[in-house]
Automatic annotation (TrEMBL):
<keyword id="KW-0503">Monooxygenase</keyword>
<dbReference type="GO" id="GO:0004497">
    <property type="term" value="F:monooxygenase activity"/>
</dbReference>
<dbReference type="InterPro" id="IPR036188">
    <property type="entry name" value="FAD/NAD-bd_sf"/>
</dbReference>
<dbReference type="Pfam" id="PF01494">
    <property type="entry name" value="FAD_binding_3"/>
</dbReference>
<dbReference type="InterPro" id="IPR002938">
    <property type="entry name" value="FAD-bd"/>
</dbReference>
<dbReference type="GO" id="GO:0071949">
    <property type="term" value="F:FAD binding"/>
</dbReference>
<feature type="domain" description="FAD-binding">
    <location>
        <begin position="4"/>
        <end position="340"/>
    </location>
</feature>
<dbReference type="InterPro" id="IPR050631">
    <property type="entry name" value="PheA/TfdB_FAD_monoxygenase"/>
</dbReference>
<protein>
    <submittedName>
        <fullName>FAD-dependent monooxygenase</fullName>
    </submittedName>
</protein>
<keyword id="KW-0560">Oxidoreductase</keyword>
Length: 389
């Protein structure tokens, strides 16, 4: 296929999108400001429709030995489990009726390896993109690389360079929103969590009053994700002893607090770009939306963005009409500003009645399936876009 696409940003969303286009025969140039891909530990949950996309692109097999397959989501209180949702209820809607826990950097590495084997792909690291301009028939990117400024033209430019994207601002696109109160604490323990809380599933949500703690089983560790109380955050000391004290406070169901092997604190925001496209330049991933990190939905939604926009680019290149890309960008904007934002907001608000609501949903098979469809993000991307790969 004749056509050229520039992708700004070599995160997992940018690289997976580049692979989708390159495997369809499009010439792709990926520009990344860093000297290598970012290997920092970030999102790690991949939902069924995202797994369908990754598998069709050949990205699951290379990471299989470093994944944890999760067959059900469990909800519990201090007294024990009160609801369980087996993902096999979705078997008629997806090729992967389960979640996979794996570091997003592993997917990025697999995508990079696949791209490096394709002759019509150019990967430029240390390339700082300065501007993107879109005209009727082409888009132009200016960037700094090897000590001088360069310019490249392409049929389309996909901007995937993160929430702090200066290109988004340069394109005149707003990014309004809010910062969620407090901080999120993520604790890593390499001890088997079942030794401390028997009967856990690979993804378990523990409710204790008006707070919810996420427990995620990885290939070689567990992640415990929570929001410390305001009183705990007022502490000036943020050392291991402080983390252990927070764990003891939030895991009353545990026989004992698990050992702490690592932790980090971060703030979460909710921001949605005012629009996703300006002419032939389109935002995808974190450049388009950031939300609460619960369930890794923001990262998964970014991969859906890339799939949908890439499919639209292929149609546009075939027809010579930019309309499919603009329509797809509007569709993804609706998904981000309604489904994604509203769903992730729900897990930050008042949770005092949420456990009872989940209990009632689990008791009704029809409601339980609808709940799983939502929490698995199957309604955030059309099946046709996945089948087009």
């Amino acid at each position: 296929m004749n056509g050229k696409v520039i992708i700004c940003g070599a995160g997992p969303v940018g690289l997976v999108t580049a692979l989708r286009l390159a495997r369809a025969g499009v010439s792709v140039c990926v520009l990344e400001k860093r000297e290598t891909i970012n290997v920092a530990s970030k999102a790690s949950t991949f939902h069924p429709p995202t797994l369908d996309i990754l598998d069709r692109l050949g990205l699951l097999e290379p990471v299989r030995g470093r994944t944890r397959v999760v067959r059900a989501a469990q909800y519990r209180t201090v007294a024990g489990p009160f609801a369980r949702f087996p993902f096999e209820m979705l078997a008629d809607l997806t090729e992967h009726p389960y979640r996979v826990h794996v570091e997003q950097a592993e997917i990025a590495r697999a995508a990079l390896d696949a791209l490096e084997r394709l002759p019509h792909v150019r990967l430029l690291f240390g390339a700082d993109v300065l501007s993107v301009e879109s005209a009727d028939g082409a888009a132009c990117v200016r960037f700094w690389h090897d000590g001088r400024e360069h310019a490249l033209e392409a049929d389309f430019v996909l901007v995937a360079n993160g929430a702090g994207s200066a290109l988004r601002e340069q394109m005149g696109i707003g990014f309004d929103g809010k910062v969620y109160p407090g901080e999120v604490l993520r604790v890593i323990t390499r001890a088997p969590m079942a030794d401390f809380i028997p009967g856990l599933d690979g993804v378990t949500y523990l409710f204790d009053g008006n707070r919810s703690i996420s427990l995620l089983e990885m290939h070689d560790c567990w992640r415990v994700i929570l929001r410390p109380s305001d009183a705990a955050l007022d502490e000036t000391r943020r050392d291991r002893a402080w983390v252990e004290a927070v764990l003891r406070d939030v895991l009353p169901a545990a026989i004992a607090a698990p050992p702490v092997d690592g932790w980090d604190l971060y703030r979460a925001s909710r921001r949605i770009a005012s629009r996703y496209a300006v002419g032939r330049a389109v935002l995808i991933g974190d450049a388009a939306h950031v939300t609460n990190t619960r369930g890794g939905m923001n990262m998964n939604c970014g991969m859906h963005d890339g799939c949908v926009i890439a499919n639209a680019v292929l149609r546009a290149l075939e027809s010579g009409d930019v309309a499919p890309v603009l329509a797809a960008a509007e569709r993804r904007h609706r998904v981000g500003s309604t489904l994604l934002a509203e769903r992730t907001d729900r897990s930050v608000g008042d949770l005092s009645h949420w456990a009872e609501r989940v209990r009632a949903i689990a008791a009704d098979p029809r409601e339980a399936r609808a709940f799983l469809v939502e929490t698995s993000m199957l309604d955030m991307i059309d099946r046709e876009d996945i089948d087009a790969i």
